[in-house]
Amino acid sequence: MADGSGRESMRIWHPCTQMKDHEAYPPVFMDRGQGIYLYDREGNAYIDAISSWWVNLFGHANPRIVERVTEQLSRLEHVIFAGATHAPAEELAERLLAVAMPGLSRVFFADNGSCAVEAALKMSHASFRNLGHPEKCRFLFLSNGYHGETAGALGVCGDRLYAAPFKPLFIEQIEVPGPDCLACPHGRTRETCDTECFAAMEAAIDAHKAELAGVIVEPLVQCAGGMRMYPPAYLAKLRRATTEAGIHFIADEIAVGFGRTGSMFACEQAGATPDFMCLSKGITGGTLPLSCVLTTDAVFDAFYHDYVEDKAFLHSHSYTGNPLACAAACATLRIFEEDDVIAANVARIAYLQEAVRGRFAGCKHVAEIRNTGWITAVELYADPGRGEPFDWRSRTGFRIYRAALRRGAWLRNLGDIVYFMPPYVITNEEIDRLADIAIDSVREVLG
Ligand SMILES: Cc1ncc(COP(=O)(O)O)c(C=O)c1O
Questions:
Q1: Across the chain, what does the average pLDDT equal?
Q2: Do 175 and 119 belong to one domain?
Q3: Are residues 57 and 142 in the same domain?
Q4: Is the CB of 146 under 6 A from ligand 1?
Q5: 112 Cβ closer than 6 Å to some ligand 1 atom
Q6: Are residue 378 and residue 313 in the same domain, yes or no?
Q7: How would you class 120 by CB atoms within 10 Å of its CB: exposed for 0-12, middle for 13-18, buried for 19 or more?
Q8: In terms of domains, do 49 and 94 share one?
Q9: 361-383 per-position pLDDT tens digit
Q10: Backbone angles phi, psi at 336, to 5 degrees
């Protein structure tokens, strides 16, 4: 029955959305994308400042990716990936292993980030089971961490917002207090940090060693948990501690891989090769869904046996290793190689960081401006001096996001954090424009 709210016409239930908001703010009806811009049906342009949920690397409708996918489309659009393989998957595996840290030698494909995490957790436990240790079935994860929203992934999510409502539906793993560099409980600053907070991880590994299969973390930046950044030294310590305990280090690089933190993969900055690396999002340049888990010979060998029923890794998705997605990923990795993207990004990253710092330096509501590579975040508080956040009912971040939309930038907030994670093809002029829009929007909302 129509009640005037408009809800009867809402056929599509959008993710991560309070649908009632669409009474006042209907979803923007997007028509097309070109480079860093999204265009709605009325022709309004929006700078895609968050790369469409952190997936887009080289701009929308990138001609090099489009060409490769188009070519693949008329050759082989999809094929079962059990018992068959194909050229884009073979090329992609070779390209991935060529850029990954030495020691990672096997590629297992899935089709979205959460499923890569599921696969890594299952593979980790099953490898121990195959080696005669079925009791190793638990995982440590960091508070504020986020690893996706399927049941297994929620079990290792420290982020209350996404996981708490569904607690009865999943097995909760073991949470360890994660680094909190904004309000360091050890009284350190980012400059004086000696990763004292790692003691909590050490203690947890010690306490649960016998039942643990591994530890899962988002290297360097806990993105969905609020763009919380912590130093590489933490990862280096984690590598040492997990090796000593004989358990797995699972690096979820789904959001931070492929250059987001400045290096190809975040773990490189710690000189730490994980036992599992989960990848997705930027892998196809933001074109098509794809994910994978990279792992080691040791893990692979634990499954190598005579029968499917005995020791094989039974985990599959219908669209595993889709040829179109693999072709898009090959084109993406080719761009990295041909354009020497990681080196070329250095100056642009510095420009973005300075542009944001310059605009926000005098803003009295800024608790911290932080950056790691392409990720720059501005955390806003009602009163930073007293450590007082805004009342969440004030919807401060959301109002800033709406104000930025009107000005032509897609700056979707994370709580009261305004962050920038644009495609790598953004120019200095566009960065200036984006930073101006951001500060003007903050001023409009906060005065
Ligand atoms: C670190 C991390 N892991 C896993 C996921 C889940 O990926 P997907 O949304 O493709 O399931 C995300 C998504 O934001 C993520 O940021």
A1: 96
A2: yes
A3: no
A4: yes
A5: yes
A6: no
A7: buried
A8: no
A9: 989 999 999 999 999 999 999 99
A10: -55, -45
